[in-house]
Fold this protein.
Amino acid sequence: MNFPQDLKYTKDHEWIRVEGDQAYVGITDYAQNELGEIVFIDITTQGETLDQEETFGTVEAVKTVSDLFMPVGGEVLEANAELDEHPELVNADPYGKGWLIKIKISDVSELDSLLAADAYAASLKK
């Protein structure tokens, strides 16, 4: 499993990459592997401001549908439009082309409650 050191992680298997007051959000390599082949991403919250841990969409795999949760509060600026036609990018490149949403962070102090890569990896072994 791959967990880049420059990202923060949630217990619900989302990652966040901060770039100034904005950030990209996706699901981890572990999550996409557990879900299996991803066939549809449903994000209808573009333009909305959501709280930390609030649902921003769903990911549908062959076997299941899972909610997607905000790692921190913020406004959903953009959903990755490329996933409309190519949801499998989440499986192939979860930390790159498979990003899900771009957000404007409301409260950067919420980042302190997230897990570093080593802590996230350790949480999977419990």
